[in-house]
Amino acid sequence: MHAIRKLRESGHATTADYETMLAENVVFHSPVLIRTIEGRAAVAQIFAASTTLREGAYTGEWKLDDRRTLLRWKGQIQGHELESFDFIEENDEGLIVDRTVAFRPMPAAKLFRDAMRAALGSSVPDDFWEYIN
Question: Domains (ranges, CATH) in the chain?
């Protein structure tokens, strides 16, 4: 079982817990942000907040090779179906260096985005959430 899945399913996923599995220069790609988030502390905070805003379980895990894993998650946010796919890449030490997430359906992804923005407050700048003209 992948470390992200194991931590999430433990029900006790804290920012500090996520930090232990992330490389210092980890990069996170999310469909709810317009830019990538980089760095262990910032990414760990986002991962921890995410686990508090939705409920569900992983329904699939595929180890693609020594460094890459694909996870499928299904659940709900605010009573609406939400599904995600995570593509995770690790370095030689087993630390996550890159994670890309895709969500569906779009209306539930928007609910998730809005909940994440409220939960994270000013720790993620406005220009990560909205295009600034």
Answer: 3-121 (3.10.450.50)
